[in-house]
Design a protein that fits this description.
Helix content is 21%, strand content 26%. With 171 residues, it is an alpha+beta fold. The protein is globular, with a radius of gyration of 16 Å. 26% of the residues are buried.
Length: 171
């Protein structure tokens, strides 16, 4: 799901807080990727956006964040699939890095369902979603198991000749 960044951190409107609580109660929101402003300018949205990855059927225990918001995007510098290389490298273990971190459900609830996942969460979060037996372990898998198929997410990229192309990110 793609959301305007403002929806993630607004917690002064009861309806938004209740919607985010329901999402965390009914779905395992396992990843949020913060994108730079301008990624969806062609679609009429120049604001910063986020990709939310979730699986229906179980509550969220922790969220792995990955931050791509520092990338400059423009007409001559489009946002391309190669920007996700480090994301895909870290995704299987939801490893911590200078661009990724994990936040627990308790931390989110303490901030009245603010899902932004900023600097304070980086310091208070964990470097890996596996810390404390979360992520794939809560689904009954063992360390050697592969995570379940997460489906595919559509991504618009530019190909070698500068034309836009649609690809699917299989997670």
């Amino acid at each position: 799901m793609v959301l305007d960044e403002g929806v993630l951190f607004r917690n002064n409107e009861t309806a938004l807080v209740q919607t985010k609580k329901k999402l965390l109660d009914d779905c395992d929101l396992w990843c949020i990727v913060s994108l730079p402003g301008g990624v969806f300018t062609a679609a009429g949205a120049g604001v910063k956006t986020n990709l939310l990855f979730f699986t229906r059927g179980g509550p969220t225990e922790s969220i792995w964040y990955y931050d791509l918001s520092d990338i400059k995007v423009g007409k001559k510098k489009p946002f391309t699939i190669d920007k996700f290389e480090d994301f895909f490298r870290l995704l299987p273990d939801r490893a911590g890095s200078e661009k990724s971190w994990t936040v627990t459900r308790a931390q989110i609830e303490a901030k009245n369902y603010d899902l932004k996942g900023g600097e304070s969460e980086r310091e208070g979060g964990t470097g890996s979603a596996h810390a404390g037996g979360t992520a794939r372990h809560r689904r009954g898998e063992t360390e050697g198991d592969c995570p379940p198929d997460r489906g595919a997410a559509p991504v618009r990229t530019s190909n070698d000749n500068g034309r836009s192309a649609h690809q699917r990110l299989t997670l």
